[in-house]
């Protein structure tokens, strides 16, 4: 950064104070950090679209999203012309870009933070204010993983729209979810998203991802310095285990596992379906008294049917605003995912409560795992079932719980994360 910022604005299409997905929690943590460093009167949150005004501890602003006619025009002029992926084109509006520029000028913002290229495309031209694009993870890679999953896993049911579906005009949603159309859409989106990511790496002062591997990959592909594309840990508003006021973990006598995540996200929906169809019966064959608690909203039809089938051993709680009671009294988090990208926030949530994690290789990507981390990584139905039973052993569980708590303190506690953010945002 060229100077120490005095005020900052975060521009997003997400309300950070509602929802059970990882993104709202990451954004809330970023707001907390900026508030701590700049004060609440100097932090602004700008949400594009959404039905209601955003309310929170900082100064909030809402800009109306483009009408349906503009969304369709953006799709025709930007995606079909190869200029931008659909997830950007359906939000594009020159009038909105002008409105955002006027707002930022009026507020005197001297640090702009854009939540992915969906809002990064609106970065006003001609401004000299430092700009950061929080890419989160590489959408191009996420789409490629979905294509691979469709090819590799015959039982996979991927919704290419995922949590973005609410931004898509109704008539296009059904069309985009048809098999042949969806596969072609994923291929086009992956290619166009890759172009958008390269553009972001070259044009923004800095791009941020949660995965160090993805950050290195983008920096190399874009031909930019490593400090232009950086990996940063999520700043979650969670105190380290053992801090005053935190809930002490009490492992249950009988095995009780948790599957956590926004279930409308394709990787979570598929992961839960796979667990219920394949892994959970193998666990019950070894430990019939085991129980599974599913936390997250909007499961797909297949996952709902399987939860009903296993109603005697599986409960579904939907959205739970306070995860302390859930995670502090469980045996382990089952992070069984078969595709996806980036760091899974649910893992950090578990570590913060000293909860051991059983994960697939894909699920643990971007997070330090293995001995000493509280995260056990394995793949395959039988190995996952055996791993779940192993974690139910009281001695082994206590050992992994202590490792998980220390892992959080070392990598994700507020002091460690804020020190990284100070360097990234120029607030040293």
Features:
Rossmann fold; 7-stranded parallel beta sheet; 6-stranded parallel beta sheet; 13% strand; 16 helices; alpha/beta; 428 residues
**CA radius of gyration:** 22 Å
In the CATH hierarchy, the architecture of the largest domain is: 3-Layer(aba) Sandwich
How far apart the termini lie comes to 10 Å
CATH class division of the largest domain = Alpha Beta
In one word, what is the shape?
Answer: globular
Q: Considering the protein shown, what is the CATH homologous superfamily of the largest domain?
A: Glycogen Phosphorylase B
Sketch the major β-sheet: 7 strands, parallel
What is the total number of structural domains?
2
**Care to count the β-strands?**
13
Q: At the third CATH level, what is the topology name of the largest domain?
A: Rossmann fold
Structural class: alpha/beta
Describe this structure in words.
The chain is α/β, with parallel strands linked by helices. Strands 3-2-1-4-5-6-7 form a seven-stranded parallel sheet. A six-stranded parallel sheet has the order 10-9-8-11-12-13, with helices on both faces. The protein folds into two domains: 8-236 and 414-425, Rossmann fold (3-Layer(aba) Sandwich), CATH 3.40.50.2000; 256-411, 3-Layer(aba) Sandwich (Rossmann fold). Helix 6 (139-152) runs antiparallel to helix 8 (179-203). The model has no long low-confidence stretch (mean pLDDT 88). The N and C termini lie close together (10 Å). The protein has helices at residues 22-38, 68-79, 86-89, 94-107, 116-120, 139-152, 170-176, 179-203, 212-222, 266-286, 301-309, 324-327, 345-352, 381-391, 394-411, 414-425, and strands spanning 8-12, 43-48, 59-63, 112-115, 131-136, 206-209, 229-231, 256-260, 291-295, 314-316, 332-335, 357-359, 375-377. Strand 1 (8-12), helix 1 (22-38) and strand 2 (43-48) form a beta-alpha-beta unit. Helix content is 45%, strand content 13%.
């Amino acid at each position: 950064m060229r100077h120490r910022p005095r005020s900052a604005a975060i521009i997003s299409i997400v309300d950070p104070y509602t929802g059970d997905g990882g993104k709202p929690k990451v954004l809330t943590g970023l707001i907390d950090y900026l508030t701590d460093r700049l004060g609440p009167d100097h932090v602004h949150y700008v949400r594009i679209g959404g039905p209601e005004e955003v309310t929170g501890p900082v100064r909030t602003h809402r800009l109306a999203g483009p009408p349906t006619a503009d969304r369709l025009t953006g799709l025709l002029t930007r995606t079909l012309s190869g200029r931008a992926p659909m997830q950007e084109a359906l939000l594009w509006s020159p009038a909105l870009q002008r409105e955002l520029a006027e707002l930022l000028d009026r507020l005197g913002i001297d640090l702009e933070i854009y939540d992915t290229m969906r809002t990064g495309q609106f970065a006003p031209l001609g401004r000299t204010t430092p700009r950061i694009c929080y890419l989160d993870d590489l959408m191009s890679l996420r789409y490629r993983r979905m294509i691979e999953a469709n090819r590799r896993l015959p039982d996979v049911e991927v919704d290419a729209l995922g949590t973005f579906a609410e931004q898509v005009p109704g008539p296009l949603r059904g069309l985009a979810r048809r098999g042949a159309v969806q596969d072609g859409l994923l291929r086009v989106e992956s290619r166009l998203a890759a172009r958008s990511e390269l553009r972001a790496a070259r044009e923004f002062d800095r791009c941020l991802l949660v995965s160090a591997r993805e950050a290195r990959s983008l920096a190399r592909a874009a031909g930019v310095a490593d400090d232009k594309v950086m990996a940063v840990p999520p700043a979650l508003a969670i105190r380290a285990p053992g801090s005053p006021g935190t809930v002490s973990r009490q492992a249950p006598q009988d095995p009780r596992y948790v599957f956590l995540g926004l279930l409308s996200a394709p990787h979570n929906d598929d992961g839960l379906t796979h667990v219920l169809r394949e892994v959970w019966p193998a666990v019950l064959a070894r430990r019939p008294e085991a129980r599974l608690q599913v936390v997250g909203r909007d499961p797909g039809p297949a996952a709902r049917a399987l939860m009903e089938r296993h109603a005697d051993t599986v409960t579904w709680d939907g959205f739970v605003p306070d995860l302390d009671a859930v995670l502090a009294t469980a045996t382990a988090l089952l992070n069984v995912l078969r595709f996806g990208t980036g760091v899974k926030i649910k893992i950090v949530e578990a570590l913060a409560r000293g909860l051991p994690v059983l994960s697939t290789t894909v699920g643990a990507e971007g997070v330090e795992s293995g001995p000493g981390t509280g995260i056990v990584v394995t793949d395959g139905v039988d190995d996952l079932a055996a791993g779940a039973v192993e974690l139910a052993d009281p001695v082994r569980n206590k050992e992994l719980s202590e490792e998980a708590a220390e892992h959080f303190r070392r990598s994700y506690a507020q002091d460690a994360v804020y020190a990284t953010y100070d360097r990234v945002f120029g607030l040293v």
